[in-house]
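Interim report, section 4.2 (structural modelling).
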Amino acid sequence: MKIAEFEVETWMTDHENHCRYNLTETCVSSLSLNDLQKYVQEDISKTIMSMTLDYGPIVGSSRLKQAILSLYETGTVENITIAHGAINANELVMISLLEPGDHIVSLFPSYQQMYDFPKSLGCEVSLIHLSEEKKWMPTIEDFKQCMRNNTKMICLNSPNNPTGTTLPLSFMKELITLAKDFDCYILCDEIYRGVNTITQTMSPSFSDYYEKAIVTQSLSKVFSFPGLRLGWIKGSKEVVHTIDMRRDYHIISSGPMDDYLACLVLENKEHIIKRSLYICDESKKILKSWLEQEHLVSCVIPDEGTVCFLKYEVDMPSIEFCEKLQAETGIFFVPGSAFGVENHLRFGLTHLNEIKEGLPLFSQWLRQFDK
Amino acid sequence: MKIAEFEVETWMTDHENHCRYNLTETCVSSLSLNDLQKYVQEDISKTIMSMTLDYGPIVGSSRLKQAILSLYETGTVENITIAHGAINANELVMISLLEPGDHIVSLFPSYQQMYDFPKSLGCEVSLIHLSEEKKWMPTIEDFKQCMRNNTKMICLNSPNNPTGTTLPLSFMKELITLAKDFDCYILCDEIYRGVNTITQTMSPSFSDYYEKAIVTQSLSKVFSFPGLRLGWIKGSKEVVHTIDMRRDYHIISSGPMDDYLACLVLENKEHIIKRSLYICDESKKILKSWLEQEHLVSCVIPDEGTVCFLKYEVDMPSIEFCEKLQAETGIFFVPGSAFGVENHLRFGLTHLNEIKEGLPLFSQWLRQFDK
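Predicted structure of the assembly:
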């Protein structure tokens, strides 16, 4: 099945291992099991060394599902299933529910999987183009104009990658009203949920407000454990059952070790999220004060998530810009072109020391473009 | 995308946790990391506790790919990519290379993913029906009759699940000649490769004999580590590149911990395979002598793999048979109907003690059907 190259992922794979200042990373500085041990009474090492590594709980343990439910207002274990990261969670939702000829509505820019994966399944896709002038926010009118009788799913990513924009609750409710009129699913990839530096709480989840909402998340971003490759899906009991049936063709299980470790991460989430909030908050402060003195770069700084989208006033395509910058300074960005938007760079609020050292160096490098 | 229920997997999920004698398990008794530590000099626990759990090597580490290459006669690291188990490896191959309208040829019975996954992608599927009288072996004539101008892929599972049949090298070579005439891929799920109790060596891999062969395998069966969820694909450099591009939409990476542990398993494979050979060999001896005295059951015992397919001479559908047997004795089988073949049971050669105790109990239970 033909599909467009996943530009942000291939760029990351090709460039991330050769950089000195990673200013584009989306995961809050990853932790180790020794870091996790500090919050946990039981001996992690002893448990995982003695565990029989059979397939483990096929659709995830009840303990893990209970831990996941603590992130939401509503739901039971029957509303949750486990996946190999949020990427696989999104895949499972779309391949289970979409058919060739279905129409879906998505945002642009956003995570490419949300529109190019359904396209590869033979779906028709309408894209709502976001603009920086409107703080990267869509309007309900934008959605109304896209909806059709065969619209099966609205595919979102909130907080959005790369812009960081989070849809406010009032907007979510209006969108749900519209979706109900078309008996349409809302899939929201909520992988960046969890570090709102203004409210200090998690923003609302679509799954708590609409029966036909399906949300995905993982341990990768605010939980700092991307290496566990553990994501999940929350949806209606019927949707979860359909996905569990499909899932046997894709992953079988997550394995008992990752299931157990994910329980420990989520059961100790207050420590981990507190650290992530601190890191993202400090990063935003440094970014804000840097933006005040850097006339060639601007940005809509979001309330939540771990990324935002820098705009640069230099007449150079973003791929060329990023490659030159990385070659000459070791500073690593994902170019806006990987999201279909030129003259932008995805900025990650996750690596505090690299941001502290990297931003002044970036400014120094930018001086060659002053007129 | 509609797909048939994956019958063997849903049966396993629903029944495997409530049994006393698992006589159907396909993985040679799973091991723990403490078991692995016996073969390894370095301190596994120390390494995994201190490892930063970021995404890790995106397409798998070179060390892991080198370890995988030791299972084949040919190839370089560019011929290998990593997946979440063999199930995900098969998915990645098929979703990357097949298009709606393509024709594929597969065997029946065999692993259901091999024919129902491509069908869900819109492919046409021709099935070659295997018969017990011919020792579950297809003929080249069977394949010739199925081939069409739009045949894109021959999808096999050798050694086969559930019959255990392994295609001999002479047959493989004839099939390759036929595939070349149609410029057709051969996908062979070789997950059961590795425990040939006759030759004591691994049977040949399609990937060592044909440029357009793609093979998959994992740590689940003969390597006794299904819980690591680590599989791989070996194919031409071009195919691996296409799959790596697609892979970003499905799993991103396997995570650094599973990558590292998989290296240790494969670097110490001689110990693990020796144990698996012993277990399967002993199991076959017990099964053979049991079959000699059990007149209601017969079986084609295969040379390789960890499963075979028992035929029972009782007039009862296999689902009813298995449920009654499990309820009354705790003996667990997958019914033949999960593979589309009635009056059969999938037998696993993997749990030696359960086989020793379970088979006499099974005979005792069967006496009610004597005429």
